[in-house]
Write a structure and sequence with these properties.
two-stranded antiparallel sheet; elongated
Length: 153
């Protein structure tokens, strides 16, 4: 799993497990199946939120809000996938060059860190938005589910 997908998965899904499937979705990929179109991404987020809503006893209104938060975050994060692919291509070109351009390698690293920071900020925003939709008890249930899923308990 590449860093972009892991970062997305951990951040959006993290504590609440809000968008369990959206980690890959935010980058428009399905494991082993290439890019996912926006309609597939939306359907996957909707399905996950329906499951989460059952587990935390969320109201239809909460479910609707969580779905919107997930879809918005996935749409905002999707462009990072193509940017990440381009950065990986650049890294391979630098690695395979006859001589190592340490300045270019450092510039690429700095760009990748800026990209990761932007993704992290957006995921944190989505997580906080979702937390405001759920009650403390619902957040506790979601956190317990995420801990089991991530083997943290």
């Amino acid at each position: 799993m590449d860093l972009s997908r892991r970062t997305t998965l951990s951040g959006i899904l993290g504590t609440l497990g809000l968008l369990a499937s959206a980690g890959a979705l935010a980058h428009g990929r399905r494991h082993g199946h290439g890019p996912m179109d926006p309609a597939q991404m939306d359907e996957r987020i909707e399905r996950f939120i329906r499951h989460l809503a059952i587990e935390v006893d969320a109201s239809p209104e909460q479910q609707q809000k969580l779905t919107a938060i997930g879809k918005d975050a996935a749409r905002d994060l999707a462009p990072l996938r193509s940017q990440g692919l381009e950065l990986r291509k650049q890294a391979l070109a630098l690695f395979s060059a006859p001589t190592v351009d340490r300045g270019a390698v450092e510039k690429l690293r700095a760009t990748r860190m800026q990209q990761a920071d932007a993704a992290s900020r957006r995921m944190t925003q989505a997580l906080a938005d979702a937390a405001e939709v759920l009650s403390p008890e619902q957040r506790r249930k979601a956190a317990e589910r995420a801990a089991r899923w991530r083997h943290l308990s």
